[in-house]
Design goal:
about 450 residues; alpha/beta; Rossmann fold; Helicase, Ruva Protein, domain 3; five-stranded parallel sheet; 19 helices; elongated
Length: about 450
């Protein structure tokens, strides 16, 4: 954080000069005023971080000065000083937002300690504002619906948001979301649903690995009363429940092969019949599937139906693991810290910078979910006002060196560069077709061409 700009407002020159000399010696930028009118002139022209204000002043009292400062700019922190032991003034000052109060005579070291405390608070506020700025990747409306945010500043996250927005405009295109466990595949699926015209209808999430094979047809298509032992009433299946909405099939790679053909038939014909009934019912459902395994490889090995894979992968969105987009870690870290400080009503004011520095070097096998759980535990165990790296539990033996991080980054850049060149060659240097081959937007391809210094012309 930059060194602070500090304003001293006191009608005693000796006090102003003593504080100024001390603060300048501690590398702060100092501005002085002997009257409120002069102070307001400084505030108008200079971005002040902290104002040190005497209570007894000409023109108007210090409490009124502080009120005006806060009305004009809430981000300015105010430290009050006074040569009069008026407790009512102290109470008023603290109630109206003063960060500290000192009676004269005070020790300069006390002022410095107050500034250091305020500096840490300002640093935390700055980080939280950066988090808020990054949260604009998805609309407020989307956040209100899904209750979470897709956060990050990496090109990978920007590409995902772009792809989500594009596919949401199509009415019934199937989507396949790929990525490791914990990367946020369901969040992407919900985002697509709530960005689409289906957003007023039901979004239903199904974990395919949790469905017994014997109950597959009943769960997906429903059943009629008496169709099998235990069927005591008619039941709607997930396709009917999701009619005109979105059905999210998580971990679809775990679906038994003999049931995949039945799912494919529904996707192609958009009709179902309940177990125990010969009557077919039309359904209008967008299917979004997700897998942490490579379905294409599985289909080549006959472990997943090839035709179902191609039906589901009309539009593919891949979420990179957190270790491949380390620039998102500090943003996610501060976002989760903010959530749990508020949720647990903690008085944490400072975040040790070593936390982000070390977590960037961690591989995060559990991805974003692991980071979120890690932060929750850290905030719980933190007893004081500073969150430290010691509050975080993870295998420190798995921390990568800075050199290895740089090597990995270079290797990833080389692979990306090679893929872009191949796509350009295959598309005869047509950027739109090359972007389509890479399953990224034209704008994203253009950013990468500039990043790698690739000439997009054949």
């Amino acid at each position: 954080m930059k060194e602070l700009n500090i304003l001293i407002l006191d009608d005693e020159q000796r006090v102003r000069d003593e504080i100024e000399e001390f603060l300048v010696g501690n590398n702060y930028s100092v501005y002085k005023a002997d009257a409120p009118s002069e102070a307001f002139s400084v505030l108008k022209n200079i971005k002040i971080d902290i104002a040190i204000v005497d209570i007894k002043l000409p023109e108007m009292d210090g409490i009124s000065v502080m009120k005006k400062i806060k009305e004009d700019d809430q981000s300015i922190e105010v430290i009050m000083i006074s040569g009069h032991g008026d407790m009512n003034s102290v109470i008023d000052a603290m109630r109206l937002g003063a960060s500290d109060y000192f009676p004269k005579p005070f020790r300069l070291i006390e002022i410095n300690n107050a500034i250091e405390r305020t500096k840490r608070f300002l640093n935390l506020s700055k980080k939280l504002k950066e988090v808020e700025a990054s949260n604009t990747l998805l609309s407020k409306e989307l956040h209100a619906n899904i209750g979470q945010r897709l956060i990050g500043k990496s090109s990978a996250i920007k590409d995902i948001v772009d792809l989500m927005s594009k596919v949401a405009k199509s009415y019934d295109t199937s989507v396949l979301i790929t990525g490791e466990s914990g990367t946020g595949k369901e969040l992407i699926a919900r985002g697509i649903h709530y960005l689409s015209t289906r957003n007023k209808r039901y979004f239903h999430s199904v974990n395919c690995s949790a469905i017994p094979e014997s109950l597959f047809e009943s769960e997906f298509f429903g059943h009629t009363k008496g169709s099998f032992t235990g069927a005591t009433e008619d039941k709607k299946g997930w396709f009917e429940i999701s009619n005109n909405g979105t059905l999210f099939l998580d971990e679809i790679s775990d679906m038994p092969l003999n049931q995949q053909a039945k799912l494919l038939r529904v996707l192609e014909e958009k009709r179902i019949s309940k177990v125990g009934s010969h009557i077919e019912v039309s359904v209008d459902v967008r299917v979004v599937a997700a897998s942490n395994r490579n379905l294409e490889n599985m289909s080549e090995k006959k472990k997943f139906r090839f035709d179902l894979y191609h039906r589901l992968s009309s539009f593919v969105i891949h979420i990179s693991p957190l270790r491949d987009r380390t620039e998102d870690i500090p943003i996610l870290l501060n976002y989760f810290i903010q959530i749990y400080i508020k949720k647990m009503a903690k008085s944490i004011k400072t975040i040790d910078k070593k936390i982000a520095e070390e977590l960037i070097r961690y591989s995060f096998p559990g991805n974003v979910r692991e980071l979120k759980n890690m932060v929750e535990r850290a905030v719980i165990v933190c007893e004081g006002d500073e969150l430290k790296i010691s509050h975080f539990m993870f295998d420190r033996n798995k921390l990568k060196t800075k050199a290895s991080i740089q090597d990995e980054s270079l290797n990833l850049d080389m692979v990306e560069q090679q893929l872009i060149v191949k796509a350009l060659e295959r598309s005869d240097y047509n950027k739109s077709r090359a972007a389509s081959l890479l399953n990224i937007s034209w704008q994203s391809l253009d950013r990468r061409l500039k990043k790698h210094g690739i000439n997009g012309k054949g």
